[in-house]
From TrEMBL:
Gene that this sequence comes from: fsa
Active site: K87
Record's protein name: Probable transaldolase
Compartments, as annotated in UniProt: Cytoplasm
UniProt-recorded Gene Ontology molecular function terms: aldehyde-lyase activity; transaldolase activity
EC number(s) per entry: 2.2.1.2
Length: 222
């Protein structure tokens, strides 16, 4: 399973890249706004900076909602770097735009997927990735992970090559469950990725190893 980081924060992206676990980045307009990135030039420069850090796919989301504007914006984003994946919302205009980009050989990530039907339509239109939002479904008492399982099953049934990118991942168990189900990609904030490293027995085991080493290496009294 590929690990993407879900942020527009350059320091977090650098840290994940240096950890050696990073396969790509996902951003969205909220994450860009959180970093204070405003205005088209700054947005474009920021995406380029992300592409310079990470060796992998970088999802850059269009702000436009009308087909003509979406394809213009997406074309400009795709020109920035070969690793840019144009992120398109699941709407009728969005699906049409996915078809346009797919025919042009530009990769897309269809975002805001909350049902298997939406995922299937996006895949048929030629999306490279579909992004079902696990955490936001859990938030409304709906099983987000069941949706990942349903989409993986459907895509497997028909040999659909669109990758299932589990988004809105909120905690380490979501990551493990995605891997068990066979999601192609998961995207999570750095804190959630780092939480995978933690185990109290690792901490206490290391403390004991170091204490034993220190005791055995005390200077010998003459
Ligand atoms: C990524 O592609 C999504 O935009 C993101 O994972 C949404 O996460 P959130 O539900 O935590 O905002």
């Amino acid at each position: 399973m590929k690990f993407f980081i879900d942020t527009a924060n350059l320091a977090d992206i650098r840290e994940a890249q240096e950890m050696g676990v990073l396969d790509g980045v996902t951003t969205n307009p909220s994450l860009m706004a959180k970093e204070g990135i405003t205005g088209k030039d700054n947005v474009m420069r920021h995406y380029k900076q992300i592409c310079d850090i990470v060796e992998g796919d970088v999802s850059a989301e269009v702000i436009s909602v009308k087909y003509e504007e979406m394809i213009k914006e997406g074309d400009e984003l795709a020109e920035l770097d070969e690793n840019i994946v144009v992120k398109i919302p699941m709407t009728a205009d969005g699906v049409k735009a996915i078809k346009y980009f797919s025919e042009k050989g530009i990769r897309t990530n269809c975002t805001l997927i909350f049902s298997a039907g939406q995922a299937l339509v996006a895949a048929k239109a030629g999306a490279s990735f579909v992004s079902p939002f696990v955490g936001r479904l859990d938030d409304i008492s709906t099983d987000g992970m069941a949706l990942i399982e349903q989409i993986v099953t459907i895509f497997t049934n028909y040999g659909i090559t669109t990758e299932v990118l589990a988004a809105s991942v909120r905690h380490p168990m979501h990551i493990i469950q995605c891997a068990e189900i066979g999601a192609d990609v998961m995207t999570a904030p750095l804190s959630v990725i780092k939480a995978l490293l933690n185990h109290p027995l690792t901490d206490s085991g290391l403390a004991k190893f170091l204490a034993d080493h220190e005791k055995a290496n005390l200077p010998v009294k003459q």
